[in-house]
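USER: Please consider what follows.
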Amino acid sequence: MTLHQAYDAVFVKRHAYLAVQVLISGALRCICIFTLFIAFQAYGYYNICLGHSVDEMRPWCKARLPLLYNYIQSHYWGVGFLRYFQLKQLPNFLLASPILSLALCSIVYYAKSRPEIFFSLGFLASVEEKNSSAVLFSLETVQRSSIARFPGKSSSKIQGHHNLRQRKHMTRGDPVALPLENDSLAKLGYLTVSCLPFILQLAFMAATAFFVMHVQVATRFLSASPPLYWFASNLMVQRKRWAYLIWAYSAAYILLGSLLFSNFYPFT
């Protein structure tokens, strides 16, 4: 988002100063995100490494970039790039194959449907699509807040109020207000440019789970990614056979997974 805003500030709005502000704001947000991780590493280095001789130090203390968490993952759990690719781990790869296949299919489906958006990281998206995604997001946010404030009213009445407000904005000549029922971009669902960050995040998480992590935790790790559920729901609507398969797998995972995981079997 920060790169897109900086790009629009330089090439669309022609304001370099605005681009600098956007980049500084993005850098501060990144610093806030990584602050806890850095604090944990510093705390471990202060308690374990400082005040000890070189012979008494752990190997990670002598590294150029001492990272306690990486050392624990690699030394005690065997986490690393391609380190889990062993013949004895084949059952774990089979266990994670459904969720990894669903993730791969959702990413490929988005890339094939919107190649110009996917491979350009959204920079080639039209201004109309970006504005439409922003308006759609703001309208959905207002609708959710209205439902939260007025739980007794039905969603149809609330939607009618929003449609009435949209018509009033349209009659007043507001170019930003777009009717959702006539907006073709809103019908794209999760193929819009606003969902691209979730797709890219899913691709990174799936690659990390397959090549680096213990692959049997892929289901638990990827279950927090929204594109999995968007693609599965779209697949269930278009292809009924896949719908029964997805329902059967989900039910079996809940029932069998609860029994196996509680008995310390590698099912997660």
User: Anything to note?
Assistant: Residues 1-77 form one domain. Confidence is low (pLDDT under 50) at residues 135-142, 144-148, 166-183.
